């Protein structure tokens, strides 16, 4: 996840907050501007294939990069120089003629920018943030009129970026470490249980569970057609299409019972979370487990907040809340769904309450609904 610009608000010995001076806040805002430009450059590097070319082909001149990516040399040169100035790329000879300079992507940045299954692969979040900037006019209109901007309107940057950001977790620690740490979840996965993945998106959570636990079968449900189409293709490529099925449908239409019913980072986006949780209650077998993974935000509102709180509010004001409010009658949860909010939704859906599971993750909290 991205590191927000640190707040310059400080506290006195008595605990009272002190506001930054004009110079301090100007410095903070200027740092944020540099960060925004950096994110825009990363977006270009991703979309144009620059990072992948540099990671695969070693040191390249601007002409070589442009040729490999089918782009214009003059733009490629300026982008390379920007990335070198920002310390992303190494350049062999800064005194050489511009067209003769060779640029290299070091191993550390290469992992962050191109290794799609590395936990350090933060680039998709840059794509989300930059992509959402394309919709600022629509967001301004929504803020003024009280409407929303739907997930479909945000397009491929949000849809693909979100899936890619969660992919390392969904293929790695989540199915292989986190879920098996819950005894009855581990039993269901070990004994070839049935799993329902509610709001499955592009399918990485369902695919990760199937890859880590060869005996299980998984049904994924989502109402976003492009996401479901991509999920089906991803399952085929991963070799689990015989055990993982994706349904372009509201989970309310599902039948049968499941040993594990899970919703991974999506309940806060739902316009009617109580109805969805009630469906999850209905789908769970008598001894089944209902699991929700959502944002690891603070239990109560505090200001200033930590970096997780800052980034989650950043998502909320530009994506999750506008998406939620694009639906008539939405409860408008937003990204910052605190435990008490989920507890209230769960009780209204027929559960007795929620249990925060002892799974340690910086950005996500895991709940069992009882």
From TrEMBL:
Q: Which residue numbers delimit the S-adenosylmethionine-dependent methyltransferase Rv2258c-like winged HTH domain? A: 44-114
> By its UniProt entry, which Gene3D superfamilies does this protein fall under?
Vaccinia Virus protein VP39
Pfam families attached to this UniProt entry: Methyltransf_23, WHD_Rv2258c
Q: Which domain of life is it from?
A: Bacteria
* InterPro entries noted in UniProt: SAM-binding_MTase, SAM-dependent_MTases_sf, WH_DNA-bd_sf, WHD_Rv2258c
Query: PANTHER family from the entry?
Result: METHYLTRANSFERASE DOMAIN-CONTAINING PROTEIN, METHYLTRANSFERASE TYPE 11
Full protein name:
S-adenosylmethionine-dependent methyltransferase Rv2258c-like winged HTH domain-containing protein
């Amino acid at each position: 996840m991205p590191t927000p610009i640190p707040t310059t608000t400080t506290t006195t010995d008595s605990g009272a907050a002190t506001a930054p001076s004009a110079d301090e806040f100007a410095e903070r805002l200027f740092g944020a501007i540099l960060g925004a430009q950096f994110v825009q450059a990363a977006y270009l590097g991703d979309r144009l294939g620059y990072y992948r070319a540099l990671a695969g082909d070693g040191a390249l001149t601007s002409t070589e990069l442009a040729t490999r990516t089918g782009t214009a040399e003059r733009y490629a040169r300026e982008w390379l120089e920007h990335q070198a100035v920002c310390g992303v790329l190494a350049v062999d000879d800064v005194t050489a003629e511009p067209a003769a300079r060779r640029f290299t992507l070091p191993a550390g940045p290469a992992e962050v920018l191109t290794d799609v299954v590395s936990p350090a692969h933060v680039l998709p979040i840059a794509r989300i943030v930059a992509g959402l900037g394309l919709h600022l006019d629509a967001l301004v209109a929504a803020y003024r009129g009280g409407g929303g901007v739907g997930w479909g309107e945000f397009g491929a940057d949000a849809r693909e970026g979100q899936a890619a950001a969660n992919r390392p977790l969904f293929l790695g620690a989540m199915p292989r470490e986190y879920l098996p740490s819950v005894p009855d979840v581990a039993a269901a996965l070990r004994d070839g249980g049935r799993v329902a993945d509610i709001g499955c998106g592009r399918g990485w959570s369902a695919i990760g569970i199937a890859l880590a636990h060869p005996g299980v079968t998984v049904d994924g449900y989502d109402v976003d057609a492009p996401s479901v189409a991509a999920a089906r293709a991803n399952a085929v490529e991963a070799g689990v299409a015989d055990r993982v099925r994706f349904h372009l449908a509201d989970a309310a239409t599902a039948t049968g019972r499941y040993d594990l019913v899970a919703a991974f980072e999506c309940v806060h986006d739902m316009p009617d979370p109580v109805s969805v949780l009630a469906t999850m209650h209905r789908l769970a077998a008598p001894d089944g487990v209902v699991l929700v993974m959502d944002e690891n935000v603070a239990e109560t509102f505090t200001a200033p907040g930590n970096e997780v709180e800052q980034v989650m509010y950043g998502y909320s004001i530009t994506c999750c809340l506008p998406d939620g409010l694009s639906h008539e009658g939405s409860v408008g949860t937003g990204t910052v769904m605190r435990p008490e909010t989920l507890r209230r939704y769960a009780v209204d859906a027929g559960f007795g309450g929620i249990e925060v599971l002892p799974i340690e993750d910086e950005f996500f909290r895991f709940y069992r609904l009882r």
